[in-house]
């Protein structure tokens, strides 16, 4: 192990596993190796099934991948230097350029001394490399089994929620709601999307109590005291604002329940808020275990459409119609799977930045997107959100996030001090959340 510092992360410093009293250190020491172990276990357990799907010769490639992933786990735990990528994936050159640039700027390139954001993203790109360098199994999603299980559990949770939407006529374009009701229902759906970010793969045991979770979601306001920054009403007003060619972009996070809640919000925006187009931004490769890729999104729509549960078929066919007509569009840009903060997007990927700048509202989901928005720095909590965003201001944006990393900004100073005193783990427990809005420049 290289240089480690026996302290918490200093203020105004990038999060890094080199600080031994930080959540980043615990994550790289415990959680990251566990994620790798699960991928290895999946390959060992299912290699015969993989051979049936991918053909003769696949087992040899699986054995090779197992060896590479086992070595990767060792490299992680002993903090070996980062290495260049060799696959033919479209992001290989970009990743290698960034590694070279970091060397030129004397950035440390290993798992513990590097900034946590880059190190974590590098790790998951390295997992992808173990498959991208193979001929037969290159398209495997090593997290697909876990995501499918979560999706199956999420269907039970969504049933009473869909019933509520129908009873309230929120899926009916013909029914006109008063402005206040429209804002209130938009806020309700935003909170569904927010708290679904908590109840996913890392909280999988809760999903066994589907009915209880669904009941809680129908009474979503009971969790308002856990929202440390709540700009939901401003967002609701933004969503219902009349406009020409209104476009909303949703930068997605987790598959399963959260993904279905995001789709439900998107349907409401089309049906009730006059939005003409919703762009869903998903990951181009399997990422951070539970992140949505195109296959997960389409599997979700198909599962809803094929379900015998009340209202499901109508909703699933409706969502498929949105996709067929281009009212919903899927995008899987490379930038979402780079280890860079969003302040570098306009320079690194001007095409994506320009695409986002056409949006009426960008909705960023989850903890990793928040970390990239705030540059993964341990800010003084009261530091203004607009100041932290700096040059990243393509359009009005909101971030919906349950807190699972030790960075936050734009908070009331007294509120942060109270939480520090009463619940020191509030930063990382996933029990607290925020809906943080920044209007256009």
Automatic annotation (TrEMBL):
<keyword id="KW-0949">S-adenosyl-L-methionine</keyword>
<dbReference type="GO" id="GO:0016791">
    <property type="term" value="F:phosphatase activity"/>
</dbReference>
<keyword id="KW-0464">Manganese</keyword>
<dbReference type="Pfam" id="PF01937">
    <property type="entry name" value="ARMT1-like_dom"/>
</dbReference>
<keyword id="KW-0378">Hydrolase</keyword>
<keyword id="KW-0808">Transferase</keyword>
<keyword id="KW-0489">Methyltransferase</keyword>
<dbReference type="InterPro" id="IPR036075">
    <property type="entry name" value="ARMT-1-like_metal-bd_sf"/>
</dbReference>
<dbReference type="InterPro" id="IPR039763">
    <property type="entry name" value="ARMT1"/>
</dbReference>
<dbReference type="GO" id="GO:0006974">
    <property type="term" value="P:DNA damage response"/>
</dbReference>
<dbReference type="GO" id="GO:0046872">
    <property type="term" value="F:metal ion binding"/>
</dbReference>
<feature type="domain" description="Damage-control phosphatase ARMT1-like metal-binding">
    <location>
        <begin position="28"/>
        <end position="417"/>
    </location>
</feature>
<dbReference type="InterPro" id="IPR002791">
    <property type="entry name" value="ARMT1-like_metal-bd"/>
</dbReference>
<dbReference type="GO" id="GO:0051998">
    <property type="term" value="F:protein carboxyl O-methyltransferase activity"/>
</dbReference>
<keyword id="KW-0533">Nickel</keyword>
<comment type="function">
    <text>Metal-dependent phosphatase that shows phosphatase activity against several substrates, including fructose-1-phosphate and fructose-6-phosphate. Its preference for fructose-1-phosphate, a strong glycating agent that causes DNA damage rather than a canonical yeast metabolite, suggests a damage-control function in hexose phosphate metabolism. Has also been shown to have O-methyltransferase activity that methylates glutamate residues of target proteins to form gamma-glutamyl methyl ester residues. Possibly methylates PCNA, suggesting it is involved in the DNA damage response.</text>
</comment>
<keyword id="KW-0479">Metal-binding</keyword>
<comment type="similarity">
    <text>Belongs to the damage-control phosphatase family. Sugar phosphate phosphatase III subfamily.</text>
</comment>
<protein>
    <recommendedName>
        <fullName>Sugar phosphate phosphatase</fullName>
        <ecNumber>2.1.1.-</ecNumber>
        <ecNumber>3.1.3.-</ecNumber>
    </recommendedName>
</protein>
<dbReference type="GO" id="GO:0005634">
    <property type="term" value="C:nucleus"/>
</dbReference>
<dbReference type="GO" id="GO:0032259">
    <property type="term" value="P:methylation"/>
</dbReference>
